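Lecture notes, unit on protein representations.

Consider one protein chain, 340 amino acids long.
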Amino acid sequence: MPETTTVRLWSVMAGALLVTLIGAYLSLTNGIFDISIQDIVKTLLRIDSSREHDLVVFQFRLPRIVLAILVGSALGMAGAVIQGVTRNGLADPGILGINAGAGMAVVLFLFLFQGQMKLTGWGAVMMMPVFGLVGGLLATVLIYMFAREQGRLDPQRLLLVGIAIASGFGALTLYVSLKMNPNDFETAAVWLAGSIYSANWKFVATMLPWLLILPPILWWKARSLDLFQLGEHSATGLGVPVERVKNQLLIGSIGLVSASVAVSGSIGFVGLIAPHVARRLVGLRHRSILPVSALIGAAMVVFGDFIGKTIFAPAELSVGIVISIIGVPYFVYLLIRSKK
């Protein structure tokens, strides 16, 4: 990589990280209970911190910020990989039906078991995310069953199958939700809209292994994503085992999406917008796009959550809704731009 390109990459990454830290600072210090930066530092360093500050920072705000960073990073990187594999700049992780599958599983859990399962500790906290993860994996199995043709995975067929699966799961989710009691329906509606308001350290611990294992694998395969842009036949001629690498990339990105949806619900448009912004800032090499997409995705979710919990305080607007308000106009802009 030329020196000027390297400097630009690190500058962009530093800028995205700074924006994320600004969002984290605003989320830590602002809310129904405002805390000064001096009290935040004392609380984090355990210096003369009050019980109220400990509770607000360590039990409510800090896990929410950390989870927002993890989820945003995962969705941003997964979106970049999916767009690279399908060679479609309008592809989004939600289009593949993973979000819909996880949402359907969580709604089924709330309808069938909520209030009936006598679990405590980790089991009580993690039961809903586990159902969400199972639903996302079920959607993945269906995608692979119907998107393969003559032993190969067709990128365009993948998107069409994903849209069909998302529609089917969405219809089933709507049918089940109409039969739920009001309290469970409200919980399901908030979760489906994409929210991290119930974030805790156990959710963070569940999400962290996926972020430690899968992103390095995807980054290592980034050169293959560059070659995919030349077409599959050209990539094969250059020595890339196309089907095997494609499967590895898709499974890795789907794993990130499933883990994210399991703890935060369906947060759309992060995987669409973050890679586009990254390409505009650092060019077309995926070894640059992937980390920048992750940082931009983290900044989007952190700021989206901050806006959602403060603009209508004491009520909260789900982070998924906030990002959708931004994402829909941007998606329309991309559609118009792609026709030129």
